[in-house]
Amino acid sequence: MLNWTTVTVHFSLYRRSPMPHPLKALRPGRSPSDWFGAELRHWRLARGLTQAELGRQVWTSASMIAKIETAERDCPDGLAAQLDDVLNTGGVLRRARELLKPQHPAALAPDTSPHPESTLPANPLWIWRGNVTVGHQTTLEALPGTFMGGAIVEAGISRASREGDHVWLSAPETPTSHRSHLIIGLNEAEQQVVAVDTRKVRRGPRALESDRLRIPDAYVLDDLSLGLLWALSSLDTALLFDDALLTAQRQELGNFADLRRSAVGRDMAAGLSETSRLWIGSDFCARYILRQCEHLTSTPTFWTRERTGEEASTWLLFAHKYHYLQALSARYPSGATRSFCVPESVVRATPRTARILVLLAAALMESFAIQVHLSPDPAYSTVEGFVLDPGRQAIIATWLGADGIWHVDATDSIPTVREYTDVTGDTHASSVIGAATPALRLQALADYLDLDWTWLGHRCAQLGAYGFAGLTQPSSRLLSTEGVDRACRFIGSLQAPRQ
């Protein structure tokens, strides 16, 4: 942990404004989060923005900005990068976020002295807590994101060893606690960690030897599996907590379904978490688009606002999004196109684990014959989501970055249609992943996201063959792992198997 003297020295180098340094306003004993919040407030006021105005520009709520400024919560890495861009700080907040992070050891051991079994993988989206020795219970803490509130996953630790193509781990005949959602096996010899969902153990066939479980290599914990586990556990926790209220408010908000245009404010779902509000917005927009597409005369072009792994994970895990893609594929079998804007600054600020989620979301779309394009131009970051019927009309449907829960409209305004035509035309012409085949487009996307395409193909083939639900599965009826499995199998199918 940095002391205050170090922080003062580092950040005094980054000041670009003559305004008083926010550290002077802090009392002794305040936390690094207090300092970061004061720094954010300083730059926001220097740019003449309200919390609501700044929130709209970085696709989050005014309350989120307020909580960061008052140190009620930490600023996620991706959001810090967006704030830097919008406030033109020269990278102050991104560097501040890095300097003020707790320094966790590479091998995440308990707070006591390290043990030989402490081979649990470090990951920027997770913190391991508790006793990580064999035979004990531990917890994995999924860190919060921009809209995900994080989660706690409990696990039992077991010893593992390899025999042939599988890893065997010791396990009780019946898991010791209904709260132990994972059994984690530590394979010391290979410095490998595998995991399996205890619900699968309770329902599935037992191994030949009653005191051991056979786990495939597909369930090794690495950047791929930990990223998916982070997204699923975070979404699952929020949606389960809000389940009854979500059902009631979805029915109430269904009154807007027959309107040609609507914009619903956040106050109409004030009791819901940010994750649940986004689910409602996404669900409504998907149903709205499918209804409006009945009036289109040609294969449409789609524009979507997801930029980060957190946002992209909704395509992989929201059950309604999978069904939405199925419906579009059936309606446009020759293939539609879908464009994203992911600036290089967002790529640089996003952990590798989360960047993999972006690639998987693109692969899911390509698997449904939807051709993906990607613009790196930050100027397109604030373009709202739309569906373009070229030369005729546009369907506007925004749930990410909207002022409220959603904003939908259908228009044949010539200037609007022309504007969206220019956006998609420019993106298609300058796409950083422009190529003739899905394999080449996804490989180009992996290069742009700085991901190892060969390794990812191998791991996706493994995970797709067994299904992600074997590692963990959602409890919420609103989530599904079908999208994850399809995306993994598609990527795996694009590469020749390893010898």
Automatic annotation (TrEMBL):
This is Helix-turn-helix transcriptional regulator. It comes from the Bacteria. PROSITE patterns: HTH_CROC1. Residues 40-93 form the HTH cro/C1-type domain. The lineage of its organism: Bacteria, Bacillati, Actinomycetota, Actinomycetes, Streptosporangiales. InterPro entries: Cro/C1-type_HTH, Lambda_DNA-bd_dom_sf.
